[in-house]
Amino acid sequence: MMAEVLLKKSFEIKGGDFDKAGETSDEIKQMLKSLEMPPGLIRRTVVITFEAEMNIVMYAYEGIVTFVLTEDEIKLEISDSGPGIEDINKALTEGFSTATDKMRMMGFGFGMGLPNIRKNSDIFNIESEVGVGTRVSSVIWLNKHA
Amino acid sequence: MKLAEIVEILQCEVLVGKDELSTEVDTVVASDGMSEILAFACPNSLMVTGLTNIQSARTANLADARAIVYIRGKRPDQMTLAYARENNIPVFATELGGFDVCGILHDKGLKGGM
Question: Which of A56, A58, A78, B101 would you call most buried, defined as having the most Cβ atoms within 10 angstroms of its Cβ?
């Protein structure tokens, strides 16, 4: 049986908007803090959303981050319309990057984004179609021993 | 180690958080790549970086870093400082380079987060 959804919120992210990248993660952090979630769990969640936001800003035209909280888990659905990823295995390799110098000057694009998302997820899934976009799904269990 | 001691040994200018210098840190995460900081995010850490844009302060906040040291005489812009102030993140600037900053902090017993 599916666990009851306690909270669901979607955030639109615009490609190329470097200054605003991260505002969604700030909002999610505030939300989780007000729910008195454990700091480690909050950190894992916002590392995922921040990396996702940066990926959309750097590579896609636009995207949506959907945050869902149930009694058992936090689920993050990140989908974008953009160029897509040609080789997902390469993109998941730490250090591999197709970033431009401009992206690196912003402090991102060192080939750690998707690996960081995967590392902080209990369940991680990625699908991408070249020329269409990318969809990442990430689940964090609220109680790993449940 | 208290932030006050870090300010002293690295000869920092305190740009934000002069009332927060009794805060303790025990770990250092140092990089100009924000994903590197995020990859090794841990509580009670000090972030050392040469990246001065808004994303540096945001990274510190989301990674739960207790304070930021900007190296090589770099100063963040007003937007970045305002963000740090809003989120209670002390911000320091030192003329020292990253190698020296990390060497000094390591000698004083702080450990690396990476």
Answer: A56
